[in-house]
Amino acid sequence: MGLLTDLRDSISRVVDRLFSESEPKRIGIYGPPNAGKTTLANRIARDWTGDAIGPESHIPHETRRARRKENVEIERNGKKVTIDIVDTPGVTTKVDYKEFLEHDMEKDDAVRRSREATEGVAEAMHWLREDVDGVIYVLDSTKDPISQVNTMLIGIIESQDLPVLIFANKIDLEDSNVERIANAYPQHETVELSALEGENMDEVYAKIAEYFA
Amino acid sequence: MPHQCTTCGKVFPDGSKEMLSGCPSCGGNKFQFKPASSGSAPASASDDATSTGGAGTRDLTSSAADAVRDRAQQQSHPDTTDEESMTVSDWANANADADASQRTETVDAAGSTQNEPSPTDAVDASDAVDASDAADASDAVDDPEAKPRGWGEWPSAPGESPGADPQDPEASRNESRAQSASEQASRSRGPDSPPNREPGKINARETDEDNSQKSARSDVVTPEELAAADANRRGSPAETPSEAPSGPDPDAAAGQPADAAPTDADGTVIEPSSDDRPNLDQLREELNDQFESIKIVNPGQYELNLMELYDRDEYIISLREDGRYVIEVPDSWGPGNRED
Q: Per the domain annotation, does B46 fall within a domain?
């Protein structure tokens, strides 16, 4: 009997662990290209694990494969959450290699980057469907937030009933306009920040801990 | 255009949903568009013709070639005349030796010099000499009336008819050539033919053509004809004589050196080259039709349908400019992989 009891307890522990609240939530960082997704992912990862996730660049579509950082523990105001951060390629409806030529890129490289970026969008969309438990939607606050991509993606996220936080990034820039973003998507909480400069990161972590716990 | 598994070679018809869950035979998830000219699948010829619609003449012709080749090899020519069936079956026998690469090569060669109504008339001509019997060959030269229809239909005929040929010495050479052709007509094709072929003698060969060959040069095979040919190959004899020679011509060149003969005969070159551009465009179109979630506008330029990308179980994980693509099938994803 003792053996069976031990076995049952053991199974019970495994099941508890599988379905416990402490299982890392997979949080996808989504947004249009060049919104600062990787800069934010790196900021979070560095702050809580010491490692970065991927290279940042001012050239759009630097991130062309989804990258993941696992078991990032974030604690704020007595709340603690363990998340897997998934930094996704920027989502867009058009990819044109000519855009990269402006950044002193050779045509062959630009065409290849363009193809990889397209594959990246497909991957990002697939992750959104299959593999994320929550979304951080990053927008460049210097740009008009109402676009086809943003409207469609946020609509998809809503239809999935995924928890979503909207981050208005690049508030360190002069023509940043957080209000415009908050007004565009009033149904969601908007948090302003500068991932590059580390501005307002306290509130960012507090919201993450609260929202995704 | 059908698809083909790059692992096991299984072919899927155009628009097949079967492959979207991976190849049922080997489980592979890498596919490519199966080029029309490779023609190994029995049904591919007619499928290609109907699905590509506005495809280039060369593609249609090579499809026709495949269809007719298969049919000729099965030797089912109930409606053709003796001459025609002899021509086609001779051609088929000779052509059976040519391997696939030769065929491709010569299709290209024919395509590069083809004048629309006369894709391969040099080939026709040599076929006529080689395939007709001795009497046919000499009759053809002796009796100009033998082919009034052909010359009437032939748009670039001026220098080609022996009667109209301004160079009399050459015309007489043609006659002697025809006679020598009649001597060797009992199957002296292949190794014997090329050494005898000189520029002036091309005309003589054309005089030996029969009606079906003339018809072949004056028409481009239509998708309907291809469909009929395909149906016929499957057992319902409904072919018209014009179908038979129109198909084999590009392939028939395989048995012969792809030399300058077609240029001499045609005079003008309509299609300067047979490089891959048209096929690439075609492949892009196919890809766009199949996966409207990603539209390839140009190399390096894409339009994406986010809802389509999101809705699909499978998704493209790798694009290739040559029309190849890799899809990730649903089984590779899901909860099982999340634990890794």
A: no
